[in-house]
Amino acid sequence: MPVEIPVEKWPGRVVEETIGATAAEGGTRSRVVKVGGENTLPFMFTDGEMPNPPRVAIEILDRRPKDWSPLLLEAWGDVVDDPAKWAKAAEEAGADLVLLQLSLTRDGDKPTTAADARAITRAVLQATGLPILVFGPGQVDADNELLVAVAEEAAGERIVLGICEEKNYRTIVAAALANGHLVNGRTAMDVNLAKQLNILIADMGLPLDRIIMDPTTASLGYGIEYGYSVMERLRLAALQGDRMTQLPMLVTPGFEAWRQKEAKVGEGVPASWGDWRQRAVLWETLTATNLILAGADIVVLRHPETVKRVKAYIDRMMAK
Amino acid sequence: MATVVFRPAGKRVEVPPGTLLSDAARMAGVEVLMPCGGQGRCGRCAVVVESGSVRRRSTQRLTPDDIAAGYALACQTLVESDVVVLVPPQERIERRIKETKRAAKIELPFPYDRHDQPLRKFAVTLEPPSLADQTDDWSRLQREMARRYGIRDLQASLPLLRKLPRALREGDWTVTAVVELDSWDRPEGPPRLIDVLPGERLESLWAVAIDIGTTSNVVWLVDLIRGQVMAQAADYNGQIARGEDVISRIIYASKGNGLQELQELVMGTLNRLIAQVAAEQNIRPDEIYKATVAGNTTMIHLFAGIPPESIRLMPFIPVVNHLPTFPAREVGLGIHPEGTVDCLPGIASYVGADITAGVLSSGLCDSNELTLFIDVGTNGEMVLGDCTWLISCACSAGPAFEGAGVVHGMRATAGAIEEVWIHPETYEAAYKVIGDERPRGICGSGLISLLAEMFITGVVDKSGNINLDLPTKRVRRGEHGPEYVVAWADETATGRDIVITAVDIDNLMRAKAAIYAGFSVLARSVGLTLQDVQRVLIGGAFGQYINVEKAIQIGMLPDMPYDRFHFLGNTSVRGAYYALVSREMRRRVTEVGRMMTYLELSADNTFFDEFNAALFLPHTDLSQFPSVAALMER
Q: Is A168 exposed, middle or buried (0-12, 13-18, 19+ CB in 10 A)?
């Protein structure tokens, strides 16, 4: 008996955004990465189209990470001491994008200066041909100072600057406006708060196709259901035509999964949890794939093995 | 060219037809204040066109009577011919604008029947006792009351019997008996003798209607012979010193002698007010024989000396929603000690007798139109419905609109800034102060007005963040983070800058969001939208000063035509008054109590969503505020 699959037609569509610029577009990237553009829930190809697959960004730091799991340090080896080498390794590991996370301090605990931020950004741009995202240390004054310098240094490269928050977005958005970049905004797991920040950023004159939103998520086992539900509601609102929610979503399953003890540590946990290496990578992978099913357009990951698995998963899901 | 003459200055200027009066004034060197920057929003540039022809582009803030009298907004009015314009003194304009916001007068919307009252006065003349008739005084009075008025089984207290022999003999066996035939909780009687006065004293019969607000207490003195309010008095609740809001009072009451102290404090305030209205009518307080009391549930508990702790604790249950009738002496209320006290029925811990009283007196329970009733006080209580159904909820708006929790906040008394205008290009502030004094602070209506102006002119973004990049000294980084200077130190009564800080704005945003979220949840809970609401009735002392336009701009009140909003002043004391003078009204208010559904917002999972959605200027969903959207387009 033939089964008729019900088809859901949505009036709305997620904005398609381009990250990075090639020489032809005034940048130096070897290629650009497009995100968003879907007019359906993830992978529902009977309902609509998903012109771009979910993208994988690898998070790198500007200095050797202090509190990362030994598994991550082991996986990356010595490159963690040099952001340029790390960026190159990330590209080789299969990343679509490289996310450079700036720290508050440099070696010897000196504050990171604008000049440091420029030099690191320049080195990363030279080391990889991938489009990049650069996030500040997450402290208002430092973010504003460093990201303005980064934006100027990377002018024309169409990078993503982050992270805009409701109490601190003006300077970052102004820097993006002045230098042709995109911004990433983060809000605390709430549909309305996410929408509000998008409005505030758009009110400054930044076009919607240069705004990415991070609705904040949680790791598997630590409230992922709540984050999932918020993302799903945001996406449903977008598909129903609510313009200010029609932005690609970026989430950070790497950060979320690797701060939980299931992934982070191998000692002092029940033996029944099984092999640490496998568990850790699975924890990050499952967190990421769940969030992709909730509508994530960019997942930021940490372990190269996770990247491999998540990319394979995306490939299988995209096969029609 | 047209000639424009400005009186009383007598200056004249030639302008092409189509010139704005405000431009003509500037050319003539006549100063017309335009605090809103000539956008036709503040109404302060109103002038009188005495002769000639003009075209009014906008008449916002002018009533039809004003326009008939020739008033026109200088910044919105174009010269069409030779005209003579009178520029009135500023203070006259202010008073005129204020007039339109006055609360309704005290009239009964139903006929008063002085014979159909439970509290009555009866004059009786007794046969003097003799050796032939040795009936005791009390039985003699009882016998005569039964014979003459059919009042059987009259009861009396011991203190009254102690008074009886003297009254009988002083009045030469003619006395006036003050009798309560029945009461709210004893509709069948028996009749109770409350007082006995020598001689015939039928000219008046006094009672009081009382509203015990968390912030203000109000007493209306009523003559039950005429059914009219003869005197009114109001003052701050003496409990304020022990906590600004109901929660802090409840906590205070639970410690040591706190309950007794709070009861004595409110009784002190009420008794002072009673003495004041009594003095105004030249009577003694013990000539007042009845009190009807409305107030929120916590206030009623404290008034009656009932421990209120459970109101604050899950699952938020009061001790009693409808108190039985009790004599005044049991609580120390300063009317006649045998006088009876009726408290109106409440619904729940946070929707009290003040709200049932408000629903009664506002006519909501008789309305055929879908009506939203709001009482904006320290707590925001709201009721949605019509004559067939009612649903209510309460949201904790916090005391921001009462001036608390805001650095330069104050209550709406002399010296309070009650309205603010910000110039859209210079970001300069102009303001109006209650009592035409130097400003000391900003009251609730001033805060609403200020936030609206800051939003419309871009001093804050839609999240309420102050934009520190603006080219004005008024925005700056202060002790409490970013702030905006409303009045410079040399303009104020305190000699300090009056500012609004980022923290103040957050508090205001939360207060307005809580109120609007309450509306949204209430409407949604019955499957309606706020656009379905045909009338909005605003009660509460603070309510009457809210500028609807500004309150809509910040998204505190739903966006609908201004004529759907009605200000009723203190609806609680009015409800107490209605219940005091009418059996029908007492029946209705009991019915209101029974028919009203109470929605506990802490148990409603949509409130938080609605709250976050409303935590934006005017709202995350701009389509709910079309008039504000249109204003933003401009």
A: middle
The CATH architecture one would assign to domain B2-99 is Roll (3.10)
Q: Compute the distance between CA of residue B586 and CA of residue B567 in angstroms, rounded to an integer.
A: 24
A48: burial class by Cβ within 10 Å (0-12, 13-18, 19+)? middle
Interface predicted TM-score (ipTM): 0.85
Flag whether residue A190 sits within 8 Å of chain B, measured between CB atoms: yes
Question: Domain B119-198 classified CATH 3.60.20.10?
Answer: no
B606 φ, ψ to 5°? -90, -15
Q: Which CATH architecture has domain B206-343?
A: 2-Layer Sandwich (3.30)
Q: How many CA atoms lie within 13 Å of B18's alpha carbon, on the beta-carbon side?
A: 1
Q: Is B563 exposed, middle or buried (0-12, 13-18, 19+ CB in 10 A)?
A: exposed
User: Spelled out in words, what is the top-level CATH class assigned to the domain B362-398+516-633?
Assistant: alpha beta
3-state DSSP call for residue B124? strand
Identify the bridge partners of residue A198 per DSSP, sorted by sequence position: none
The interaxial angle of helices B137-149 and B158-170, nearest 10 deg, is 80
Q: Is the dihedral of CA B479, B483, B488, B491 positive or negative?
A: negative
Nearest to A199 among B462, B467, B609 (CB): B462
Q: Does residue A237 contact residue A245 with C-beta atoms inside 8 Å? A: yes
Verify whether the Cβ–Cβ distance A170 to B467 is below 8 Å: yes
Helix (H, G, I), strand (E, B) or coil at B27: helix
Say yes or no to pLDDT of B411 above 80: no
CATH of A17-318, one of 3.20.20.20, 2.40.50.100, 3.40.50.720, 3.30.565.10: 3.20.20.20
Q: How far is the C-alpha of B584 from the C-alpha of B365, rounded, in Å? A: 13
Q: Which residues pair with B597 in a beta bridge?
A: B391
Averaged confidence pLDDT in chain B: 89
pLDDT at residue B144 greater than cutoff 90:
yes
User: Average pLDDT, stretch B145-158?
Assistant: 94
Contact A191 B461 (CB under 8 A): no
Give strand pairing partners of B78. Answer: B20, B55
Q: Per residue in B15-68, pLDDT tens?
A: 999 999 988 988 888 877 766 666 676 677 888 999 999 998 887 777 787 888
Q: Do B613 and A199 touch (CB under 8 A)?
A: no
